[in-house]
Amino acid sequence: MGRGVTLSIAAGLLCLLAVVVIGGALVAYNRLVRRRNQVLASWAQIDVQLKRRYDLVPNLVETVRGYASHERATLDAVAAARSTAIAAAGTPGAADRADAENVLTHALGRLFALAEAYPELKANQNFAALQGELARTEDKIAYARQFYNSAVQTFNTSVQTIPTNLIAGIAGFRPMDFFQAVDGERAAVQVRY
Amino acid sequence: MDPRLLLDLAVGGAALGGWFAAYGAVRLATRPADPTPAPATMELGAEPPALVSLLVNRWTVTEDAAESTLLDLAARGFVELRQPGDDPRQTTLHLPPVPPDDSALRPYERRVLDRVRGLAVDGVLPLTALTFRDPARAKSWNKRLRAQVVADARAAGLSRRRFGPTVTTALSAAALLAGVVVGLAAAHYGSWRGTEDNPGLAAGVFTFAVLSAIAGATPGERDTPLGRQLAARWLGVRAWLRGHEQFDELPPAAVAIWDRYLAYGAAVGATRLTSAVLDLGMGDRSLVWSSYGGTWHRVRVRYPRGSRYGKTMPKLLFSAAISGAVGGFALKLFGPSADLFSTGSYPGARTFALVAAGIVAGAVLLLASGGYTLVRGLADLLTERTVTGEVLWVQVWKSTSQGENQPARPWLHYLAVDDGSGDRTTAWGLPSQWAGDCHDGDTVTLRVRPWTRRVVGFAVVGHGRSRSLAEATVPETTGVAAARAGAPSVTPQALFPPEEVGQAVGLPVRPAEAVDLPGPLTGVQFRAAGDGAAVLAVQTVAGTAGQWIWRLNARGQELPGVGDGAYLAGERAVLRVGDRVVLLTLLGVARGRAAYLPWLLAQAAARAAGRDEAVS
């Protein structure tokens, strides 16, 4: 009798333990899925803003070409950077995309710097409007990157910490890349007199 | 029970029940919408965070409105938040040396910014020092902020009054009907009971007055089609922000990175930590910020309790004498009987002896207490000293008992003062007649008695920055607010210069002449410069009377954005600024110039608001 009771209790405890473990695993899995989806949604927001930037660039290039057609190198660089960025939009990795977008950002920066030498271009309303719209888009890209990196950090922390990393390993969740600045952006700005 | 009484009660009850049922139905029908959130998005809109807070909280202005406005001001460069360590409660506010142009700030944004500017010392203010130290002032400040947010929302078409004029009129008409029915029931009761004074009229009038007051009290705001649409979109932003778990844990100083997102996050309730740290309500009276000595520091304040604190010398001596007299009398009466070892012959003798011994012990204690009080009281008198410091907190301590026909009146206040000697202090007992003379932040010199903690001499030697933010408090029937609130500090003559009145009425006028009016009303009259005929009457009143006058006259065409409320009805206009109410009435040849009254009121409101904030 005593032995039977003991066995029953042990079985009951084992069942309870199994329920707790399975329940915990399900909760951890769902949390990983939720956080991964948040990362994907944040990436989609970056995508929206980047695409908006792509759409603005051709109009900007044509406006500048009307006033500074001989600045071929700079204009071609912007067009090439845009093409590269659009091509990179199809790649899955954030790192490659980030690199391409940063190249485009630099190219646009050189274009706006060039416009300083052409007062008629600066006074052009279309150019001013495009410049303002691009500036706002850049701000939105910056915030979208912040949100994305925040979501990636949360997701990566879940994937790498115990005990969620066990579920992550079994279910195939992997840490994701941040949307980072390139080394040139991080270096201190030099001033030359 | 008499069936006639049952009938009267049933009829009266049915009338009241019917009215309240109608009122409840109207409230149900006009409750603010609960919009379905749009898909999650990070795209912000043009609405300021305070309006967003109103929209996402179902057209209720919460504390998030002020907190999110502060963060928005930080994002736009009007203030800077810095957190030196790990604790976000150590965050400090810094005013920039060259502030941005603030001419386009909305009224509630300016209100928050002015609070920061008014409290900062050398451009620095601890974030947690934004709290208020006076409940009436906190209530008034927040009430005005809410009114300004609501006014802005109405002007933008995002919000409207929950009870419009039609609904209010209908409920008032129903109240009249209910009053008539209740009055008839009461009259019927009076007639078959044969009472001397028939209660019908009184019951009917009272019922109508109460029900129409309930109908007239606005139960808040409700949605508009545009408001619902924008609320849905902002709920989508909330969903986006809440999806980012780290956002919840961002401190206020993170506004430097997250910019207006943090402000909107606070507005939609997605920033748990930031919202917990930010507080523009009532502070903690036991841990108060002080800027005495030029550096912000916190002072822990103890509020003493006990019968001796705050007592005058005569009362102290009287207490000592009473204790001594009672103790001596008890000792004389029970002393001979007190014998712990008594073995008396009658039953209960030992018990009686023990009880007597106990009474004697108590009497001895009373005598000792009386003697101690006498000695310490006299020593207190001889050890008076002077204390100079910054006022930290003023609060009612002791009040007289409430009588049948008399409300409780405070006679002693707590006065916490930082004299710079340490980070702890004990509050003093300040006679209430002086309590209205000082505000938190003022520098005061006190003559005090340390043992009773009583203030026997008081002088304000310097006004604090908070004096410029002193709000007109909402008067109460009892308490310190009634003692501290006074008559309108701005006269009708100051609010309405003759030149402006002349422009409004269309002819030159003489300077205002004072008019004798009953009760708390003050009034002036403007007369035409030519024939001296009266053209404009201006009456002002504050306090409870002002509230009633406002309630009676807040009818007709509403004038949004003018003061804290304004209405135009025929040849009469009414304006409210704080707890002051101003009534304008066109007279004689000036009738017909009502179209110019809104402009005149707007000028007066701006003048009154400017004077309020410049009081020092």
UniProtKB/TrEMBL annotation, chain B:
Transmembrane segments: 6-26, 167-189, 201-220, 316-334, 354-375
NAD keyword on record: no
InterPro entries assigned to the protein according to its UniProt record, in alphabetical order: YciQ-like_C (IPR048389)
Keyword annotations: Membrane, Transmembrane, Transmembrane helix
Keyword NADP assigned: no
Segments forming domain Predicted membrane protein YciQ-like C-terminal: 48-270
Highest taxon listed in the record's lineage: Bacteria
Pfam families in UniProt: DUF2207_C
Protein name per UniProt: DUF2207 domain-containing protein
